[in-house]
Design brief:
two-stranded antiparallel ribbon; mainly alpha; 76% helix; globular; single chain
């Protein structure tokens, strides 16, 4: 039926049309930029409404476009996570980007990144994954460099080089994967060459682990997140992670896994999860710069998410819920916290944690909002991040040692999140300043609380 095509066609037309339109609307004048910005913001809001509408009352679990796309609740939820992160990042960017000569390109590339992620979320075909990956990855590399200052360009080049390496692994992995199952589609039943298939899964996983910055593939991440423009990093460090998480999840939950594949996935992802949590926490614990802390803590956060990938064949529904909710908590908080770092740097002139002193006394709203985001990443109830970690640990019920390691690392992360909160409530000379970044942090905290209250209901949807 034609109605089955409405959600993906409507979203595609809207994002593609808007991404092209903003390039012509903004001719260097303030009015043109404002129009382009609100067109982008409106497009994200409409896309979010469409996704929520069809998630709640629309049909699901059906194929379109010759089985290339599979419309499912998992696809809707992954897309919603990306759009929410994009909204938070965009809300903090308006005034900051106004002086950029490349501001319209930034808006266009943000929408193209979103379009690529949404297509990957509904993909049922290797070609769709490759196309979506190409669009969203290329856009994220460009976004990193768009400020065109020295730090952003150098960081963007490092990101691009590592991206090319990961793309090489992905293409080779998908070649082995396709040979192993004898088709380009994910909805397979028989594996013709198990060894090739398993090797393909390994290479594809390495490619996507590069993209999310999991250990030991995180070498590029600190330089990019610390040195590039804060607003660019707000988007890349949050929504950009979905470029790796979405296709990896789609590949693992599709088809009929063998015993060999299940053991391989458990061993690989358990090892990388533990190393990412531990190394990310240890390094973040030793840092005093808030952007550095957020950068290395993102490695640890991906370690928690990988617990869900470790258990995806043991407790699939719980693992999927854990991955989606934890990624939603991370994406919203990460986008908000890098906007927060940008605001702090503009007001206090530094990103050292001592620059936070006096924030609570001068701007209690921002202090409370940023505290909520930090506590969400820490996993404190009833904020969204608590439910993500709870479901991830529950999915590892049959691997108790992994739960113990996860809980220990979650406790260790308090060693660098709590000092940030403590510094905000110390006496200091922080000045109250209204900014888009400030408003985006408050919006992100409100979303974290609101979605946290209904997060358990996602188990029913999944």
């Amino acid at each position: 039926m034609y109605i089955d095509y409405i959600p993906i066609v409507l979203i595609s037309v809207l994002l593609l049309f808007s991404s092209i339109s903003v390039l012509f609307i903004d001719k260097g004048e303030k009015k043109g930029y404002s129009t382009g910005y609100f067109l982008t913001l409106s497009s994200f809001i409409v896309v979010l409404i469409v996704l929520l509408y069809f998630l709640t009352i629309g049909p699901d679990n059906y194929y379109i476009f010759s089985y290339s796309l599979y419309i499912s609740n998992i696809g809707y939820l992954l897309s919603i996570v990306a759009v929410l992160g994009g909204l938070v990042a965009l809300l903090g960017a308006k005034d900051h980007m106004e002086i950029w000569r490349t501001r319209s390109s930034m808006l266009s590339l943000m929408m193209l990144t979103m379009l690529g992620i949404i297509y990957m979320a509904f993909s049922n075909n290797i070609i769709v994954i490759l196309t979506g990956w190409g669009i969203s990855s290329a856009a994220s590399y460009a976004i990193t460099m768009l400020r065109k200052d020295f730090g952003s360009v150098i960081s963007g080049m490092k990101y691009l080089v590592m991206g090319l390496i990961s793309s090489s692994f992905m293409i080779f992995g998908f070649a082995l994967y396709a040979l192993g199952i004898g088709t380009l589609y994910f909805s397979f039943q028989n594996i013709q060459y198990p060894d090739l298939f398993t090797l393909g899964i390994v290479f594809v996983s390495v490619a996507f682990l590069f993209k999310i910055g999991a250990f030991p593939f995180q070498g590029w991440l600190p330089d990019v997140y610390i040195d590039a423009d804060r607003i660019s990093v707000s988007f890349v460090s949050s929504v950009g992670k979905m470029v790796g998480i979405v296709p990896l999840l789609k590949i693992l939950i599709s088809g009929d896994p063998t015993g060999v594949e299940e053991i391989s996935v458990l061993a690989i992802f358990a090892t990388i999860s533990i190393l990412s949590m531990t190394i990310g926490n240890i390094v973040a614990f030793s840092r005093k710069d808030i952007t550095s802390i957020f950068s290395f803590s993102s490695i640890a956060q991906m370690g928690f998410v990988l617990i869900g990938f470790t258990t995806i064949f043991l407790s699939q529904t719980i693992a999927e819920a854990g991955i989606i909710i934890q990624m939603m908590a991370y994406v919203i908080a990460q986008a908000g916290l890098f906007n927060f770092a940008n605001h702090v740097e503009k007001v206090s002139g530094t990103t050292d944690i001592r620059g936070l002193r006096g924030l609570a006394s001068s701007d209690r709203g921002l202090a409370v909002a940023s505290t909520i985001l930090l506590l969400s990443l820490l996993g404190i109830p009833p904020i969204l991040g608590f439910w993500g970690k709870l479901f991830l640990f529950e999915s590892a019920f049959y691997i108790p040692w992994l739960i113990v390691i996860g809980v220990i690392n979650s406790a260790i992360s308090a060693g660098y999140y709590v000092p940030l909160i403590r510094e905000m409530y110390r006496e200091g000379n922080f000045t109250y300043v209204r900014s888009d970044e400030r408003d985006s942090v408050i919006f992100a905290s409100a979303i974290s609380i609101a979605v946290g209250l209904i997060a358990p209901l996602l188990l029913v949807v999944i």
